[in-house]
Write a structure and sequence with these properties.
- It is a single chain.
- The protein has 2 helices and 38 strands.
- The protein has a domain of 120 residues.
- The strands form 9 sheets. The chain has a 6-stranded antiparallel beta sheet with strand order 33-34-35-36-37-38.
- Strand 12 and strand 13 form a beta hairpin.
- By secondary structure, it is mainly beta.
- It is 4% helix and 50% strand.
Length: 357
């Protein structure tokens, strides 16, 4: 296939090492007026100068917004590829990213060239097996890295292959899993299905209840919950009768469903739960290790921090010990990021300088 170069400027060649990519994985985005990245210690790793910021991909690049354009940056915040597309996704491990141009989707390589001409109604990321789900008109199928059809379009919806080597697809209103040849690995019999987690189990919904199947499609945890999340760090969030708790990979309830809110355990094996209108941190035994001072919505970030946003859109970052590290505050009409002692971290100006602006 002839490659087409499309008004894409290369600024810096990415020479990220595995160690550097690991560092990038530990960064999560944050937004004041604009967006940047924080590291696991709550320090600014990349200044908030972008209109939006997506997570870093496996190859250590992140899609961020700059004006009306999307650009890919490395973990230093350096521009790698400047795009002029309608929309884009992050790079997959094969160094291809789905991009949208003139209302059609195709794929870009990390040199800034069009690798697969925009021709699809929708497109999702490539998996490690070199296949990506795309939609022609009404039906989804899969293509290879050269853009050739690998699995003919026949599905109502489709997701990329996961670490199990299987992809979840929807046909005739039901979800099931296929292998890389397009053969059914499980029956399409579920009302909904998540992808497989690292433990080889996938959450499914059947007859209005959630349970888990293995890669052969056998139900290993009976559908019995009102809702469940996929397993993260060996625990799954379950919901029954409006309350949340946690189960293990045997389906046993290990932390009773008594909470009004819950997020998955993070890389430090700490989770956040809501009880009596307050957010608390718990360990895997269900013991409360800290109570957070602020209320609102909470998110467990990829770098191990917890972010709370209250009803006034103020933000607070806590570490896994429950210590407040950062928060936002208005300084003379400017949204500033402050440390716990009140020092202005960003913008890098004093209060007097901000107020003179």
């Amino acid at each position: 296939m002839k490659r087409v170069f499309l008004v894409v400027a290369l600024f810096i060649t990415c020479t990220c090492t595995a160690k550097e990519n690991m560092f990038a994985d530990e960064m999560s985005s944050f937004c004041l007026i604009q967006c940047g990245f924080l590291n696991s210690k709550g320090n600014i790793a990349i200044d908030p100068v972008f209109d939006y910021a997506n997570p870093f991909s496996d190859i250590g690049l992140a899609l961020v917004g700059s004006g009306y354009k999307g650009v890919f940056i490395n973990f230093r915040g350096e521009w790698i590829v400047e795009t002029k597309f309608d929309d884009a996704e992050g790079f997959s491990s094969n160094y291809l990213a789905a991009i949208k141009l003139n209302n059609k989707w195709g794929y870009l390589n990390d040199d800034g060239f069009i690798a697969i001409k925009p021709q699809f109604v929708e497109a999702k990321n490539f998996a490690e097996n070199g296949l990506a789900p795309v939609r022609w008109k009404d039906d989804w199928g899969f293509i290879d890295e050269k853009g050739k059809t690998a699995i003919k379009p026949q599905f109502e919806d489709a997701y990329p292959f996961d670490e199990s080597g299987l992809a979840r697809v929807k046909k005739d209103g039901k979800w099931g899993f296929i292998d890389k040849y397009g053969n059914w690995a499980t029956k399409a019999e579920f009302d909904f299905a998540h992808g497989f987690a690292e433990n080889g189990l996938a959450a499914i919904k059947k007859n209005g209840k959630y349970g888990f199947i293995n890669m052969e499609g056998k139900i290993v945890i009976k559908p019995q919950f009102d809702y469940i999340s996929n397993f993260v760090r060996d625990f799954s969030i379950m919901q029954n009768n409006g309350k949340l708790g946690y189960i293990n990979n045997k389906g046993a309830v290990v932390i009773k469903p008594i909470f009004d809110g819950a997020v998955n355990f993070n890389l430090n094996d700490v989770a956040a739960v809501k009880l009596d209108k307050h957010w608390h941190l718990i360990n895997k035994k269900g013991n409360i290790t800290a109570t957070l001072k602020h209320s609102g919505t909470i998110e467990a970030l990829s770098n191990g921090l917890f972010l709370i946003e209250d009803s006034a859109f103020n933000q607070y970052w806590y570490n896994s010990k429950g210590e407040l590290l950062l928060y936002t505050d208005t300084v003379c009409t400017i949204t500033a990021l402050k440390s716990v002692n009140g020092t202005i971290i960003y913008p890098r100006m004093t209060k007097e300088e901000i107020c003179r602006e």
